[in-house]
Design a protein that fits this description.
There is one protein chain. The chain has one domain: 2-enoyl-CoA Hydratase, Chain A, domain 1 (Alpha-Beta Complex), CATH 3.90.226. Helix content is 41%, strand content 18%. It contains ten helices and eleven strands. The strands form two sheets. Strands 1, 2, 4, 5, 6, 8, 9 and 10 form an eight-stranded mixed beta sheet that branches. The chain is elongated.
Length: 291
């Protein structure tokens, strides 16, 4: 038998050896790669309705989930909110600002981002809206303390212990809160802002078209386009879009795969606040026309 006809050097054996040594590991790698290295994700976090302790806790937990899971590369913050508590609005603003140190955050205003909701959005890298979205109401609402009086049966260690301060002091607190709000907008929008802070402090509500003209937002695009923009800022082209709410609060009952975002209740979204506790609020309040 000639040397070239040796079984060890036959073409069939060489092909089989090639398949085992090269193709099989490659196939295993292609199959295992998505399981070993998760696909990048763009997470959707939703801020719906009034900003209070409950909604702040929900959104904060979702932002924490994104921060702790390396597969999440960017965030779309989808907003439908009239604002709310000043303290909780500032909490969300600071949380979004901190998250930006790890990944890009794009805010998309769906129907309404007023007062504290826009305050929160100001922390994002970019803000987008629709043409008829309602944007603005930059200002503060607060109730003044009652008149100071003397109660002989109650002892206090200071003259304003029972009242919290004078009405004049409360007015100054409101002004400080307003300037903090305006400064957050200035910090977030920077040179993109095309209108003065004094004008914004009038607390008007603007359409998305007006907000774009004033530099309050970066464009008029759909939520899907805003997701793509978040991916571009994150530097990923092949990614999954995930809802962060079910991932954050999954209880293991199998509902994760069937999750559908709730439809916004328009009456609830635009309803005037009731029984507000004393304090400072960054919230849109539509007063009756006859007032």
């Amino acid at each position: 038998m000639a040397e070239n006809d040796s079984p060890e050097r036959s073409p069939l054996r060489l092909i089989l050896l090639f398949l085992i040594v090269v193709f099989l590991p490659l196939a295993v790698g292609v199959y295992a790669a998505p399981r070993l290295v998760p696909k990048p994700q763009i997470g959707i976090a939703r801020l719906n309705y009034e900003i209070d302790g409950f909604t702040t806790e929900l959104l904060t937990a979702q932002l924490d989930y994104a921060r702790q899971n390396p597969e999440v590369k960017g965030i779309l913050l989808l907003i439908n909110s009239p604002g709310g508590s000043a303290a909780y609005s500032e909490e969300l603003y600071l949380n979004v600002l901190a998250l930006r140190e790890q990944m890009p955050v794009v805010a998309s205003i769906d129907l309404l981002a007023a007062s504290g909701a826009y305050y929160t959005a100001a922390a994002a890298d970019e803000i987008y809206a629709k043409m008829t979205s309602a944007v603005g109401s930059i200002g503060v609402i607060a109730s003044l303390p009652g008149a100071v009086f003397i109660e002989e049966e109650v002892l206090t260690t200071g003259p304003y212990k029972a009242f919290g301060g004078t009405r004049d002091a409360s007015v100054r607190q409101i002004e400080r809160a307003k300037f903090a709000f305006l400064q957050a907008i200035q910090n977030g929008r920077g040179q993109r802002l095309e209108v003065s802070l004094d004008y914004l402090s009038r607390a008007e509500i603007f359409t998305g078209v007006q907000a774009l003209e004033f530099g309050m937002i970066d464009g008029l695009i759909s939520n899907d386009e805003a997701i793509k923009r978040a991916a571009e800022l994150a530097g990923v082209s092949d990614y999954d879009v995930v809802e962060l709410f079910p991932l954050t609060f999954d209880d293991g009952d199998g509902a994760l795969g069937s999750y559908q975002p709730p439809v916004i209740d328009m009456e609830r979204l635009w309803a005037p606040p009731s029984n507000l506790a004393p304090g400072l609020y960054y919230r849109y309040l539509e007063l009756p026309a006859n007032r």
